[in-house]
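Weekly modeling sync, notes
Attendees: AB, CL, MP (scribe)

Item 1: holo prediction request
CL wants a bound-state model with calcium ion before deciding which constructs to order. AB pointed out that an apo prediction alone won't tell us much about the pocket. Agreed to run with the ligand included and paste results into these notes for async review.

Input as submitted:
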Amino acid sequence: MARANDDAAAALSEYAELFALTGGDAFRVRSYQKAAKAIAGFPEDISVADVRDVPGVGEAIAKKMEEFLQRGSFRQLDDLRGRVPEGVRRLTRVPTLGPKTAIMLFEDYGIDSPVALGEAIASGRLDGVKGLGPKTLANLLKGIEQLEQSGRRVHIGVAMSLAEQVMASLKAERIAYAGSLRRMKDTIGDIDILAVAPESIMEDFRAQPYVADVIAAGDKKTSIRTTSGLQVDLRVVPAQSWGAAMQYFTGSKEHNVAIREMAVKKGWKLSEYGLFEGETVIASESEEEIYAALGMQFVPPPMREDGGEVKAALRHELPDLVQLPDLKGDLHTHTNLTDGIASLADMVAAGHARGYLYYAITDHAPDLAMQRMTLDKALEQRQQVAELQQKYPDMRLLHGTELNIAPDGSVDWPGEILREFDVCVASVHSHFGMSRDEMTRRFIAACENPYVDIIGHPTTRKIGKRPQVDADWDAVFRAAGRTGTAMEIDSFPDRSDLPADLVRLAKHHGVKFSIDSDSHAIPHLANQRFGIGIAQRAWLTTEDVINTWPLERMLAFLGR
Ligand code: DGT
Ligand code: CA
Ligand code: CA
Ligand code: ZN
């Protein structure tokens, strides 16, 4: 459900950004950012609960948030919005472009948008400008390109919560989302919702508070743009065509083309209204009936990409896909000892409430200097974990760490310390721009470390913000397969990392996977459904996913 938390946190983040742009004190910037993160991750809705209960929210921030809850903004935010030109703010959306440079480009060169910046770089107008070497300019161009590509699509986390909000806001006999969202793609172009409902639903839809623009209004289909910029298509379909409509509008187009050909071969016709022989309906009410009539297994939506699933379904050879309830634990989570916002005890309790049989705490390691981690703190936490374990006889707590893979492939601690952890995740958190060869060697060295169990969020991408690092993934996955190092499927929706195409490649090299939430707050634990979506798009079964395995088998894989 849409909570006030997300909007309030976004406003506070914007305030932090504007505050930094106008030369505000770095310490306060960080405290705003931390509070915004805490609000977004707070389990209760702050329009109901007291925002002062959120960790890191003091009186001054609480006042701002209360004003925001009343009128959708606060005075200090309005002030800063007025002071920082829109052009400068547009520029800072370019990855790698900091606020100081943005202000310089705007004031000295009149550049007021990513497009204008791209043109200025291409025309050579910025050559020789102090602080903007050829490498920096090349990186900026890359950033602009990435911004344009990601411009219209959003990650699945944003789309899913909006779809759920829309469905909850409308009264219908039946309502569901289709399209790329149902196929669990990691980015979504627009949301497609189908409903069995009276035509008056269209009027209700257009009147919803999340509607910014009505793009097209009809009896059967209405398209709107929401205040967040994302488009939603609502279609009303006849109850008896529900299955055919879901099949058609779930797509993908390529999958549908392949299915329709099969129908044609039998002398039938398949449309969004049903499967027909002449005027006679063969199947239409459910997708299951349609696939069955075509002599196929039901194809789970994440597989519907014309990637071999049609042939496999005809032979009744579809794999038994891994499902959310198969997950027996989470092997990558944080607490407020580093950059999480919930305590160890609260995170573990929330993991237990999900029914897990094992749960790993993997706070950051010392080389990520910002987190101020030390060996002493890690050992003290290990003691706390051991004590907490007594409270949970039916869930095994694992004390782990998330290591940093240095440019040379080494990690934070030597073997004699690493081997005392129950599980070691190792991730790249810096030096993203290394060459393909160097990056490949870096990952292979990490896989070859006998204590590294899992490579965390391997490509390090952030959808819309940071591209994948460049590596020879065939070579990396070969090393992972050989050394028995699992690759992570990081379920955080803006990461979605590994992406499904690389998961498929890795599986081909015999790699096993760990589907992890990388939680920094309690609500993040539920992101596992997105990781499952990636795994399903890559055709994974429980054999491929180590954290679906019973405890003993999983521990044997970790080799502890
Ligand atoms: P997106 O929105 O870019 O993330 O991707 P989709 O797959 O949701 O694409 P969208 O919204 O254009 O259409 C939703 C589904 O409806 C699509 O997957 C298949 C079906 N569909 C839409 N238009 C056509 C069409 O012209 N031909 C066929 N065969 N199918 C279509
Ligand atoms: Ca769509
Ligand atoms: Ca659409
Ligand atoms: Zn990480």
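Recorded for review: The pocket of 2'-deoxyguanosine-5'-triphosphate (ligand 1) is lined by residues 179-180, 185, 188-190, 192, 248-249, 251-253, 256 (CB under 6 Å).
Action items: CL to compare against the apo run; MP to circulate these notes.
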